[in-house]
Design goal:
Number of domains: 2
Number of strands: 13
Family: Belongs to the class-II pyridoxal-phosphate-dependent aminotransferase family. Histidinol-phosphate aminotransferase subfamily.
Helix content: 25-40%
GO molecular function, one term: histidinol-phosphate transaminase activity
CATH architecture of the largest domain: 3-Layer(aba) Sandwich
Strand content: 15-25%
Largest sheet: 7 strands, mixed
Subunit structure: Homodimer.
Strand order of the largest sheet: 2-8-7-6-5-3-4
Keywords: Amino-acid biosynthesis, Aminotransferase, Histidine biosynthesis, Pyridoxal phosphate, Transferase
InterPro entries: Aminotrans_II_pyridoxalP_BS, Aminotransferase_I/II_large, HisP_aminotrans, HistidinolP_aminotransfase, PyrdxlP-dep_Trfase, PyrdxlP-dep_Trfase_major, PyrdxlP-dep_Trfase_small
Radius of gyration: 21 Å
Distance between the termini: 55 Å
Oligomer: single chain
Length: 372
Amino acid sequence: MQLPIQPHIAAIVPYPPGKPMDELEREYGVTNAIKLASNENPWGPSPKAVAAIGAMLANLHRYPDGSSYSLTEAVARWMGSASDEIVLGNGSNEVIEFLVKAFVGTGDAVITSHPSFLMYQKFVQVRGGENVIVPLKEMRHDLEAISAAVTDRTRLIFIDNPNNPTGTLISREDFDRFLRSLPQSVIVVVDEAYVDFVDPAVRIDILGYIRQPEQIPAVVSLRTFSKAFGLAGLRVGFGVMHREVAALLHRVRQPFNINLPAQAGALAALDDLEHYQRTLSGTAEGRTWLSAEVAELGCTPYPSHTNFFLIDVQGDATKLYEAMLYKGVIVRSMKAYGYPDFIRITVGTMAENQRFVSALADCLRDLGYGRA
């Protein structure tokens, strides 16, 4: 068999998913494994969302609302925007794909940082576009270098804020200065997947920039129900943008892209702010506790504005990752991201956090890292 594969498709490396817990337990002979590698919500979805999903199961023979009208209206109220400024996606990933489909063709350039979310670059490769990659500077987006990299071929700039995997945040002043340094012909996409965990006092007023596009490029915000709302398995995300940009994305959006249970679950989750607030407060408490415990073990935790953070383990992070698997604890080695001595962990429940610290202490001692 000879397949007519285009070179830019053949060059794509598939996205590396985290190790599933059932696979870990089978392969390593452990039980009750915990997963702190994928930045998931350890408290799970809202009970209201679970009930709403269950109520929809008898209607699975029907197509979902192709416009997701009720959910779009609810998201708009949540964001303080208009409904025609919202585009829903099968995860915020799909909104990224819409943006690339709508604005990027062969030879067009897209600027991203490294490390950041890998899917930005993969969607550009699929379209035959050019990825212009700007390294982080001291674990932060190098906004000056990104601005300097813009040419007349640049169509999109993707900036995850907070950044994944570092958890760092762009200040309001730096973002405003950056935005005003750019030509109006580009679109600045700010991926705010983790913004729910950020103190509102330091968040960027994205909606203000979206609604006042004069003298600045178009701005798009990406949001998700996967993190703070605990609905990662449903795959629901959305973009907030100027209505003219939204209208173009709807031209490349497939109908029925948000399935029936997903629409019901996300709508109910927005109606359970008590559960949402418990997630935010539990994350903040756990992050503070974990950082102190990790430092006591001789490692260096890095400040984060998210539900995860980086840890310098003072040794080969991949070896530590593998040792932790035998303890039934899944973390993420950052070697592939250019940080060979770092792991990234998700803030879990208190029981999960305690188990992580206990396993980490044992593995550090066995490997001779930290204060061993």
